[in-house]
Specification:
The protein is 32% helix and 29% strand. A four-stranded antiparallel sheet has the order 1-2-3-4, sandwiched between helices. A three-stranded antiparallel sheet has the order 5-7-6, with helices on one face. Strand 3 and strand 4 form a beta hairpin. The model has no long low-confidence stretch (mean pLDDT 91).
C-alpha cells in the first residue's frame, strides 16, 4: 500500500470529517461530545477552504489528516484502524516541511499517547492549562516544534 499526502479539496470534506469523527470518538472518549457529525462536516468543509488541510490517503481512502492555520497545527488525526502505522508521523513530518520556522499545537493533558507521540517527534511542552480556554473545558497542553537552532517562542 502506497500512502500519499496531498492538499485536501472540497470533494474530500465528507471523508475528512468521517476520519476526524471516528478518530475523535475512539481516542478522546474522556471528552464531552460537543458537535454532531454534521457539524464536523460543516467545519471541515470550511477548514478546507480557509486553512491548509492535508490528507494521507491510499487507494482513494483518507487515512489521516492534518490542518494548519498560520503557525498552529490545529488538527492531526488518523483513522482508528490505521493508528500506529506511521501515518501520523508522516503527516507531522509534512507539517514540519510546510512550516519550516516552526509551529505550535494544543493537546489534551489526558491524551497521553498523543503527548508521547509529539515528544518522540521533537516537540516540546511549553505550558499546561486548566482548560478554561478551550470549549471542552478540559485541561490541555501547548506544544511547539522549532527547527534545530531556530529558537523558541511562546
Amino acid at each position: 500500500m502506497t500512502v500519499t499526502i496531498r492538499r485536501a479539496g472540497a470533494e474530500d470534506a465528507d471523508a475528512v470529517a468521517a476520519t476526524f469523527t471516528a478518530s475523535f470518538a475512539g481516542l478522546l472518549s474522556f471528552l464531552p461530545r460537543l458537535h454532531t457529525p454534521e457539524e464536523d462536516r460543516a467545519f471541515f468543509s470550511r477548514a478546507i477552504v480557509e486553512r491548509e488541510v492535508w490528507i494521507a490517503e491510499a487507494d482513494g481512502a483518507v487515512l489521516g489528516l492534518a490542518a494548519i492555520h498560520d503557525d498552529e497545527l490545529s488538527h492531526l488525526y488518523v483513522a482508528p484502524e490505521r493508528q500506529s502505522s506511521g501515518i501520523g508521523g508522516a503527516l507531522l513530518e509534512h507539517v514540519k516541511r510546510e512550516r519550516p520556522a516552526g509551529f505550535t499545537l494544543w493537546v489534551f493533558q489526558q491524551n497521553e499517547g498523543a503527548r508521547r507521540f509529539y515528544e518522540r517527534h521533537g516537540l516540546r511542552l511549553v505550558r499546561e492549562t486548566d482548560g478554561s480556554g478551550n470549549e471542552e473545558r478540559t485541561p490541555d497542553a501547548l506544544y511547539e516544534w522549532r527547527p534545530a537552532g531556530g529558537g523558541a517562542t511562546t
